[in-house]
Design brief:
The protein has a single domain, classed as Aldolase class I (TIM Barrel). The chain is about 45% helix and about 15% strand. The chain is built from 11 helices and 8 strands.
Length: about 260
Amino acid sequence: MPHSLASQNSDPSRNPAARSPKDRLIVALDVPTAAQARELARQLGGICRWVKVGLELYLVAGAAIVEELASQGFSVFLDLKFHDIPNTVAGAVRSASSMGASLLTVHAAGGPAMLAAAAEAAAAQANSPRLLAVTVLTSMDAAQLAAIGVDASPADQVLRLARMARNSGIDGLVCSAEEIRVLRQELGPAMQLVIPGIRPVGSEVGDQKRISTPADAIRAGANALVVGRPITKASNPAQAAEAILKEIASAVDETRRSVG
């Protein structure tokens, strides 16, 4: 069985100091074809442990790509951001678990009943996946929130949704690096924080508005980082991934020394 954040007995998120850099890096395979995903997986095999399958890839490759990646030894983060009525989301969680996904996302905005139904469905599976609630997308800033009728700042909205997710039995959160410290203060060390919008120094920002370097996110208290284009669009994806793993390792060592 591949190493998995979903393991209930050896879950590294419960002991962050014991986690290796490979447990902290999730490569987003946000590519339009299964062939491209397979080629990236081939190049990253043995270097990276975690990969993310999102909407773009899932819609062309389906459950087969999740099962294939899991069979190759990767732990799979299936990022489909379930958001529907509670019964439908519970069924989706059960289906995703049967594919071999280790992490799943649900939209916190679906509300407490939906989140609780998802958590109950996950807990009932033989290989229970961990659930991450998406709070505020990293592409959204205060102006984007105001456009959909949310007057709160991104940080305040994240905190509101994070409390609701925790109280509904959700394992962790997807959030911006900007919210890590306040979420740690509010929710404590057990809540897993997975951070997208990661850009090494010198990388293009793209459509992300709330970003961070790998080292800064780790120092702030992130459990895992989601990195896509800086790796997948690199001329040498394996080399780019190794550089980020080294940056993560350095930040982890620095953090240990500062608290030791």
